[in-house]
């Protein structure tokens, strides 16, 4: 794994504009940045990213099964009691998942370490599946990369296959997001594109316009009944608002299924460690109140946690409210503190690699139940945020 200065395509801005990629810069900050790219060997992809991600995903499903059967764990993960049956029922009904993304720390030598699982509403999908692939083709055409250069990226093709697997032919699917957020809009547009390629009918809908008919069915702004919807709206929020209270009786199929609420939650990390202590791709992690328990599982990691750990709220996104603590002192923390009131888990600190002061986090995309692609976000800080830069990658056999 190397960070290689290839130089940006001279016309990349025009190509982004033509493709509708309008958020290459956000809030006066660069988001898409292609002057450098990350190079991987095929062995690194196959052995250190793809295979471990598939194994981690299977472990997460085992953890989901344990969580939904445990009142203690459902409580620890702050799943509202009134929705336990909805969440557990979706799991027991084997409602299929669509996609997610593991965030991994990896320095090129392995093993990659799981930082967290973005199992519900991960973005950066368009940049990964479409614009990153166009970058690769252009760099090969320009002679910057060799003709046999590749990319770990069959995200779009895998999404098409998954939509065919989980829905009957020609299903009407609404794709909902807060469309004023351009990154969210791009994510649902990419998903809708895959659904159409799979032979379904895709309808965009602004989340704020979804209504409820007098029969308790969800409707769009044209009063069409919504039978199936992908909603880029986190389950932890849905389970606490009027939308969540109406789901069970609406007759609407929601993608992702409700059981994703237990694996998109940082509380998954302590459960994984309890189930698979010592796994090479996991970091020790505990619920905050477990640290003083004296339990052998905790004691075995106490020295490591005392040296350095990361405090993460259960529902934190984009690094918000995350703190790095070293030798008992907070050495770095997120500026955005919006999740400060949430319960906290503690995870052993694992340093990210540094390339000229840039810290990359690898995103391994899970489509269905298998790893199908890679994206990279890098930051000058050790805590990633919504403005961490997206960097393309390529693979050399």
Number of strands: 21
The name of the CATH topology of the domain at 154-255 is Rossmann fold
- Give the CATH class of the domain at 154-255: Alpha Beta
Briefly note the structural class of the backbone. alpha+beta
So what's the oligomer here?
Answer: single chain
In whole angstroms, how far apart are the ends? 12 Å
Percent strand: 15-25%
Query: What is the count of DSSP helices, taking H or I runs of 4+ residues?
Result: 12
Indicate the radius of gyration in whole angstroms: 21 Å
Can you list the strand order of the major beta sheet?
6-5-18-19-20
Major sheet attributes: 5 strands, antiparallel
How would you sum up the global shape? globular
| pLDDT < 50 runs, ≥5 residues | none
State mean pLDDT (0 to 100 scale): 95
The CATH architecture term of the domain at 154-255 is: 3-Layer(aba) Sandwich
> Fraction of residues in helices?
25-40%
Topology:
Elements lengths: L1 E4 L6 H8 L5 E2 L2 E2 L5 E6 H27 L2 H6 L7 H9 L6 E7 L7 E6 L6 H17 L13 H12 L5 E6 L4 H16 L3 E6 L4 E2 L5 E2 L8 E4 L3 H4 L3 H9 L2 E3 L12 H8 L9 E3 L8 H4 L2 H6 E6 L9 E4 L2 E5 L10 E5 L10 E9 L2 E10 L9 E3 L1 E4 L1
Parallel strand pairs: 4-21, 7-8, 7-11, 11-12
Antiparallel strand pairs: 1-4, 2-3, 5-6, 5-18, 9-10, 13-17, 14-15, 14-17, 15-16, 18-19, 19-20
